[in-house]
Amino acid sequence: MFLLSLPADVYQFGSDLLWLSLLVSKIFQFYQILTSTIPASGVNTHVIIVIFSGVCIFYTAIGGLKAVIWTDALQFIITIATFLAVLILGIKSTGGILVVWQKALDGKRLDIFDFNPDPTKRDSFWIILIGVTVNVMSYTTIDQSFVQKFLSVATFRNSALSMVYYAVGVIIITIISIFIGLIMYVRYSECDLFTSGIIETNEQLVPYYVLDVSRNIPGFSGLFFAGLFSAALSAQSAFLNCLSGTIYEDFVKTFLKPTNHDVSKILKIIALITGIISFSMTFLIEILGNIFPLYISLLGLTCGPVLGIFTSGILFPTTNAKGAFYGGIGALLIAACIVIPIKYYEIQGILKYAPKPLSTNNCSLNQTTFIFDENEAREPHFIFRISFYYFTVIGTASSVIFSLIISYMTNKNDPPVDKALLSPVIHFLLPRDEAVDNKVKYNTIEQALENLTASSDQVVSTDYAE
């Protein structure tokens, strides 16, 4: 997601994404990475999807968490090397950082302080600040793949440090990706690859650029594609491992009482099934358009309501189980009623986002320049023109509001909530009730983490040592 969609997005729409800190997406990696290989390899995309999905599913199902951790570490090194190599090569090919910065300013690629509050703009200061902040919260705070890793360390302090290291790393990688997008704009500012018909999708822009500037450097394109595939495999393997563990813990374990020997087999079967399902879903992405906004849209559709459930639970003591459950369902329906029509309008060409100025004046061949006219298309209703960055905000807010309303309507003799279950931010607002404090004693976060780590180590050593 970083190395392909983010630079291409900056190339077309500018660097508002300087505020963005996104993790590599899950199911979208494979299709995004593999479509980008078409200009370089000429191999059928569907064939590559089958091969690499099979490799990922195999080592995740057989190796388990240990295999995922080791491969992630090695793939991270390859990916970082790719980032740095592309950045250094790009700076040298354009004449230096100052040249890139000045031309990006002239081309309006650095207009990050657009304070227009209009929510129908594709991106602005407020849209990025609010929308992206909630988006990042939706997966770094509640996403199982993140929580699983943060809970796998020995102490709460180490877990907090892991989050800090992650944040610093993502910020650095995001800035590098954005600068790569600016470098590509400088190189192709007088011959836009999209309007001239040289490439068709955003995901093909970075590979085309790398092949263009490294044609005289043997092996560089191989390093680049190795980095892309490493990033995709790393994210997908972590996703499969996490999902298989979650399905086992929440569903299988509830109905079955497997032995330690059976647990290992069950986890491998679940990883295989979920891998096949995610592999099948990659073919659906082919008809849904630009991957970057699609990913953000689906993130808002699914993660927004879940973030709302957690938010209402830790900030509002009046929220009960019925309120949280039905509030989440209501928010999911509202988000779906917004996201699905918007994607339909985009596929039909009714809803389009105009890129920043681009030119084909210096293209070597005679090409017809496409000029986007926003007035030509029939505009959808206001609600269906809201920026996709706000979808998670809408889902979260709807979930919290519905949860509070339903909890109020169904709050009949609900026991008071112990403050240990609520965020310390609101403790000063809670009444002092000795009866509640003495009724049930809960472990602190540190104690719960130590207990969970101890039990997890015991299960992992049994499950994956075979």
TrEMBL record:
One of its GO terms (cellular component) is plasma membrane. InterPro entries: Na/Glc_symporter_sf (IPR038377), Na/solute_symporter (IPR001734), Sodium:Solute_Symporter_SSF (IPR051163). The chain crosses the membrane at residues 46-69, 76-101, 124-142, 163-186, 223-248, 269-288, 294-316, 323-342, 388-409. Pfam families: SSF. It is a multi-pass membrane protein. The keyword Cell membrane applies. The keyword Transport applies. Keywords: Cell membrane, Ion transport, Membrane, Sodium, Sodium transport, Transmembrane, Transmembrane helix, Transport. This is SSF domain containing protein.
